[in-house]
Amino acid sequence: MIIGGTLLVAGAILCCCRPFKGGFPGDIVIERPGFSLNFPVVTCLVLSLVLSWVFRWLNR
Q1: Cα separation of 54 and 20, whole Å?
Q2: Which letter, b or e, does each residue of 4-36 get, where b requires 16 or more Cβ atoms within 10 Å of its Cβ?
Q3: What share of the chain is helix, strand, coil (3-state, %, to 5)?
Q4: SS3 assignment, position 51
Q5: Low pLDDT (below 50) residues in the chain
Q6: 28-32 vs 35-39, strand pairing mode
Q7: Which tens digits make up the pLDDT trace of 33-43?
Q8: What is the pLDDT of residue 33?
């Protein structure tokens, strides 16, 4: 249940960030004719920090 709730929260955060092309500012997006690359560096860092904080908070 905890993992499911965490995934639900992470999905909600990502859905709220959709107005930014590629997630958060700082994510790398390369678009060329016939090719698109999305490398979500900042999104991964933010999710890692949030999930680390959640798991640390739950294991008190």
Answers
A1: 25
A2: eebeeebeeeeeebeeeebbbeebeeeeeeeee
A3: 55, 15, 30
A4: helix
A5: none
A6: antiparallel
A7: 999 888 888 87
A8: 94
